[in-house]
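REQUEST ID: PR-0412
SUBMITTED BY: lab tech R.K.
PRIORITY: routine
TASK: structure prediction, single protein chain
INPUT:
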Amino acid sequence: MTLNAELRSMLASLAPGTELRSGLERILRGRTGALIVIGYDRMIESLCSGGFTLDVPFTATGLRELAKMDGAIILDAEANRIVRAGVHLVPDPSIPTEETGTRHRTADRMAKQTGSPVISVSASMHIIALYLDDNRYVLEEPAAVLGRANQALQTLARYRTRLDEVTDELTALEIEDLVTIRDIASVAQRLEMVARIADEIDAYVLELGTDGRLLAMQTEELVGDVLAERELVIRDYLPTGEESDVEAILEALDGLSQEELVDLNLVASALRLGATINLDSALTPRGYRVLAHVPRLPSAVIDRLIEHFGSLQRLMAASLDDLQTVEGVGELRARGVREGLSRLADSSMMERFV
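STATUS: complete
OUTPUT:
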């Protein structure tokens, strides 16, 4: 499930170590169950019947004690205060829900009707479920989450190794001017796979709270510059006149299902690499991705170099004097570009043929 900003914020507030999570875990251990609404406005007030007003500071022990009574507990939007307790919630019964238990059906309908987060603690199933809009997110024990996160991390490491292989091969093909649509679609596919598994791990990090710091560091090290690399690949091969549509291409790739992502024709179509896709058709890179690997070369200068020369091949063939005709490229920078491209060419050739 893709995490929007509000869901990410809620998962962070429910992570192990927070006061709210401590209160929920106390309720679980007490086997009483609970229904908790986070937020209190006129709509929520209109759906509340009975109970009593408290308006006291939130504490984990206070939440646990109030959960012993029948009825829902209402917190303020920041979950800093307990506003009401013992409340009977009456959401619109016509709102569709796939839940079966009374508490879970009420939580689902309240979340859909009000847009506020609703938490259901089930004593019988021993789970904590967060409802937000149309989403249902079950909070698991940290050990179980960490186990799945470590598996995902191992998968990410394998994906990253394969990604490095195909990008190194792409660099060699670009320098030789032998790139095909198949090569670009394969690289874009691998970049998207790494980005998706990283998003999945990010959700685990949020759910783990302070326990996820090491996991976050390992993920960041493996992902590196993948997000920037995706944009550079797209900019290198977008059809002329569509250079400003990078975000639209990224959205199209994000919209591909896991099954569709395996199909290189569909990936190439999302990249707008032709109305009729022939994976063996030749392409010429502009040079954004290769120039990004030249040390100390500002993005503005990269843009001007590519605007002036038009393709990586013309850049590779440019002399020092040719490079210096571009605004912002003096003798030292021209020499750095020339040497940087030469090193990339030499290293890519060695890696390909060794």
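NOTES: The mean pLDDT is 90.
REVIEWED BY: pending
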